[in-house]
Prior knowledge:
Blueprint: E1 2-7, H1 11-21, E2 28-34, E3 38-40, H2 45-50, E4 59-61, H3 62-69, E5 72-75, E6 78-82, E7 87-90, E8 95-97, E9 100-103, E10 108-109, H4 117-120, E11 121-123, H5 133-144, E12 149-153, H6 157-171, E13 180-185, H7 196-208, E14 211-215, E15 219-222, E16 226-229, E17 234-236, E18 239-242, E19 246-247, H8 250-254, E20 265-267, E21 279-281, E22 286-288, H9 298-316, E23 333-336, E24 342-346, E25 349-353, H10 354-372
Parallel strand pairs: 1-2, 1-9, 2-5, 9-21, 11-18, 12-13, 12-18, 13-14, 20-22
Antiparallel strand pairs: 3-4, 6-7, 7-8, 10-19, 15-16, 16-17, 23-24, 24-25
Helix pairs in contact: 1-3, 1-9
Amino acid sequence: MTRLVLLGGGHAHLFVLEGLARGLFGPVDATLVSPVRHQAYSGMVPGLIGGRYRTEELSFDLEATTARAGVTFVCSRARRILPAEREVELEDGRRIGYDLLSVATGSTVRGTDLPGVREHALVVKPIDRAEVIVPALEQAAAEHGSALRVVVVGGGAAGAEVALALRARLRTLSAAASARVALLESGSEVVPDRAPAARRKVRRALALNGIELKLGAQVHAVDGRGATLADGSTVPMHLLVWAAGAGPSDLLRASALETDARGFLLVDDRLRSLSDPRIFAAGDAATLAAYPATPKAGVYAVREGPVLRDNLAAACHGRDPSRSYSPQHRFLALFNTGDGRAILSYGPLALRARWAMRLKDRIDRRFMRRFQRLALPTSDSYIPISR
């Protein structure tokens, strides 16, 4: 049988597991490698931080899902890919052989190599790290009360949502309800990849929620007292959350595969590695060679999922993968502002409303239901596969 190895429990691999559970791959010896048994859905993490969701509402049980799909689950982190040997080396030194390999390990956060960041900052990626933010905030609130100063680095969508979510959580902690929250962005604009109307809405939401926005604030170093900026000034803080954009994982850096200038795995429109057609990748871990400017956003990983599933299934059946993927030019973005509202952004349009948050919640919960059901014991619970 074909040995299929899946690295990571990212969004795209949920579609692959669904296909394996439904028998689309035929006889196959499949293994999923992940350092976590429960994978969090990134779209709902700000809601977890803000207190809207419980952990179990945004978690996929990878161990139960793989068991139902007839897939071997290995709880470990992959250290490097060895394409010449067709093997993956794990952190503990074990090696797993493959005939086909798929990578959906997500991304890390840029800038963690700056002095003091690893020692003093809480990072939002890999996504499993986000769960430590809430207890750390609660502890800091208990220690510092209303004098607490929280700093978030990174003014993209993730950083803005996390800052607003932290403010929402602080409202539930009476001793620190008036604590200060600041958002630092090295560029000249918040959420720079969205239209001007959306940027204005985000700035307005930050202001209404009492979050100080500092633009052109490039962090140079961090210590226990604060973040030192490139201009020599210091932003004092008791708690630092790092959300400074997507960076490649150590796995991709250590593997002998072709990457883009940032270190993400280069793939063609069939989601195959340019270095080796036996290796596939999707989501944040991959860069489309024909569309290198595609943002690292969950919506693209979700759209790539069915393409990855069908092409891997074809390869397992000995056929040439034929389904191609091209990213959409526009996508609907919904930003949780932590106050019962969301900002809806599509093309040049943007608005902030409670109904937008209800829409976001409905979309997120529908996605969760589809793939959480894979862990249930009866196949009758599966939602039909969408092509």
